From TrEMBL:
It is an enzyme of class 2 (transferase). Its main location: membrane. Its EC number is 2.3.1.225. It is a multi-pass membrane protein. This is Palmitoyltransferase. One of its GO terms (molecular function) is protein-cysteine S-palmitoyltransferase activity. It catalyses: L-cysteinyl-[protein] + hexadecanoyl-CoA = S-hexadecanoyl-L-cysteinyl-[protein] + CoA. Keywords: Acyltransferase, Membrane, Transferase, Transmembrane, Transmembrane helix. Belongs to the DHHC palmitoyltransferase family. One of its GO terms (cellular component) is membrane. It holds the Pfam family DHHC.
Amino acid sequence: MAPHHVLRCCQRSLSWIPVIFINLVVGWSYYAYVVELCILTIPNNAEKISYLVVFHLFFIMFIWSYWKTICSRPANPSKEFCLPKVEKEQYEKEEHPDTQQEILKKVVVGLPVYTRTGTGAVRYCDRCLVIKPDRCHHCSTCDMVNNCVGFSNYKFFVLFLAYSMLYCAFIAATVLQYFIKFWTNQLPDTHAKFHVLFLFFVAAMFFISILSLFSYHLWLVGKNRTTIEAFRAPVFRNGPDKNGFSLGFSRNMAEVFGDQKKYWMFPIYTSHGDGNSFVTRLVNLDPEQIAVGLQINGKRLFMISFIPDSVNDLASFVKFKPALS
């Protein structure tokens, strides 16, 4: 047991290396831009002040979203996803997988769980001893790295990518003219030359690398998919559906950033839901779901799309079909 704890301690310590590295790079970039460029190199006070004001706006938003991303604790399944005591004992004593699945299917009936494994089985975590909520996966490193990206901090992560990209773009754009002047020896060869030249290369390099990652995650947000679902379509009880969680572009954006657009740019929690259940858009009728009969203008209609979580979901996703009889 002792070696295991030692290994875990070493892994936790090593997981801080990327955090320390990023903070060192950001700290140096702050010094190089504020001191070496703005204070010591730029002669015009109006240009200097305008650069410093905009730079600090991007810097504050970048740091704020970064620390919100790495400090937000991962969401955990609620207690309702734990097996009741009797079913848990039956599950642990049972050796046959088919019988274990029958036990899980009885428990999952009352839960907001619509996805299954690739073979159609109920998703169950044998390490955490809970039925997995939709889109939930056990991460073997979530208590080691700082921090895994999941439901609780995904908005912060996307904003972190956006503000880090803007931070790098602003630095590269404003440093460019002084980079050229130092490179062509139009400015005296001082110690600021190294910082300005290196600052441009670092900012441009990080901007290009972050741009591709940010674009990819914007595409995921627009499609309402996780990185896992982008490679492997989620499997529902009626089969796989890559767009099973897509609610349309505007609603997909609201799922991550919230309904009030004035808060979208700030790294404060405004995402929809609790991470335990998600609104789904089932293309085909799920035989295990309830068909709700309605009477409108004397005609019998059936709502067959899905079981809504709220009145708004009902209004947005209700599908009606005239009765056959």
